C-alpha cells in the first residue's frame, strides 16, 4: 500500500488499538507504531492506490461526507498472506454502501484503485503488523482476542501517502 483514503477512529478505540500495539511489541511483534516511526494512526483504509492526486480526489468527493459517522464493530483477528495481522470489522450494510459510494465517485473521476480494495473484494480491517513472524502468530492473535470485541465510531478521514509522509484531512 502506498497511498490510502483512511477512516479514523474515535479516541477510545484509537487508545485501545495503541495499547494493543504495545502488547504486540512486548511479544516481539513489530507493530504499525514502530514500523512507521510513531506517525501511524489506527484506521480502516477505504480506498488504496499506488498514488493519489489530492486535488483530483477532493474534486471527486466534493459534497461527499467521507468520514460518515459510521459505527465499526471489530469482532475478529485475521492474517493476510505475507504475515499481515489485522483486526477485522464486521461488514455492515451501511459500511459497504459507504464504501461502494466512495469507490463509485473515485472511479467516475478516473482514479485507479488497488483491486483488493474494490467493492466485492474489500476486507474491512485495521492493520496491526506487516511483518508478523509465523512463530509469533499464536501469541499475537491471543493479544488481539484480549481487546475484542471493540466498537468504534468513524470521526475523521484523510488522504495519506506514507511513502511521502503526507496526510491531508478530508471533510
Describe the overall structure:
- Strands 1, 2, 3, 4, 5, 6 and 7 form a 7-stranded antiparallel sheet that branches.
- It is globular and about 45 Å long.
- With 171 residues, the chain is of the alpha+beta class.
- The protein contains 5 helices and 7 strands.
- The protein has one domain (3-170): Cyclic phosphodiesterase (Cyclic Phosphodiesterase, Chain: A).
- Helices cover 32% and strands 30% of the residues.
- The protein has helices spanning 11-26, 32-35, 54-60, 93-108, 137-147, and strands spanning 3-9, 43-49, 71-80, 84-89, 125-129, 150-161, 166-170.
- α1 (11-26) runs antiparallel to α5 (137-147).
- The longest helix is centred in the first third of the chain and has 16 residues, at 11-26.
Assembly form of the protein: single chain
| Uncertain ranges | none
CATH topology title: Cyclic Phosphodiesterase, Chain: A
CATH architecture descriptor text: Alpha-Beta Complex
Percent strand: 25-35%
Can you count the beta strands? 7
CA radius of gyration: 15 Å
Order of helices and strands: EHHEHEEHEHEE
* Coarse structural class: alpha+beta
Mean pLDDT across the residues is 90
Distance between the termini: 23 Å
**Helical proportion?**
25-40%
Question: Number of folding domains?
Answer: 1
| Global morphology | globular
Main features:
single chain, 171 residues, alpha+beta, Cyclic Phosphodiesterase, Chain: A, 7-stranded antiparallel beta sheet, 7 strands, 32% helix, 30% strand, globular
What's the arrangement of secondary structure elements?
Layout: E1 3-9, H1 11-26, H2 32-35, E2 43-49, H3 54-60, E3 71-80, E4 84-89, H4 93-108, E5 125-129, H5 137-147, E6 150-161, E7 166-170
